[in-house]
Amino acid sequence: MTIKIAPSILSADIMNLERDVRAADKAGADVFHIDLMDGNFVPNMSFSPSVVEGMRRVTDKPLDIHMMMQNPDAYIKPIVDAGASTILIHAESTQHIYRSIELVKSYGVRAGVVVNPGTPLETVKELFPIIDRILVMTVNPGFGGQKFIPGMTKKIQRLDQLRQTAADDNFDIEVDGGVNPETIRQCAKAGADIFVAGSYLFDGNDADLKGRIDNLRSLAAV
Ligand code: DX5
Ligand code: ZN
Q: Where in the sequence is the active site (predicted)?
């Protein structure tokens, strides 16, 4: 598939969120990545469904929701109603990941599973037939601006190989955490399709978003 660049609004200027979202939209963002954190599954708090609803009003681009919360099932319907395009759920955040994925899909929304750096791919293999996406965390979830964990490149590669040999290979591979010009090419070569970038895109006062998105896109074109 064609590669996609997904700005993570966690690193946007919260007091100027609309400005940053419109700027990233205009600069060529393919989708927006929205992190929902509950201060429980991860040691940080961030956005809620109302932010998804607000985002839906200012952009027509797809909204990918990365849920970092315990008991995600309770929030799936509000997030769907708020305008989510894809909902991504951590394998460990729910007692029954298969059921949670089915619940997302029952609303006609795309579903994906998220694997933490310490989560083996084996954990999510049984989900291949029903998922649209696997999000590989390349940092421990919870914060923007962390360093890419180098060993994760091999994991992406292994996942891509599994995808090629599996009968049900209809899922995209997304990477999240520490994606920047130094790390994106290795992820692309390993087989990733969708690239989340937060701090690289939004940090700095005079961020040239178009220049940065174009730069990521050309580096990922392998
Ligand atoms: C971290 C979040 C990421 C975060 C990435 O838990 O899931 O989406 O915004 O930020 P960077 O690109 O700065 O690593
Ligand atoms: Zn994320």
A: 35 (proton acceptor), 176 (proton donor)
Statement: residue 169 has pLDDT above 70: no
- This prediction has a pTM of 0.97
CA of 8 to the centre of ligand 1 (A): 6
Is the predicted pLDDT of residue 117 greater than 70, yes or no?
A: yes
CA 74 to centroid of ligand 1, rounded, Å: 24
Share of the chain above pLDDT 90, in %: 95
Dmax (CA) of the chain:
47
Give exposure, 154-180, as e/b (b: 16+ Cβ within 10 Å): ebbbebbebbeeeeeeebbbbbbbbbb
Model confidence at 205: pLDDT above 70:
no
Q: What is the CATH number of domain 4-220?
A: 3.20.20.70
Secondary structure class of 98 (helix, strand, coil): helix
Whose Cα sits closest to atom 4 in ligand 1?
144
How many Cβ atoms from other residues are within 10 Å of residue 116's Cβ? 19
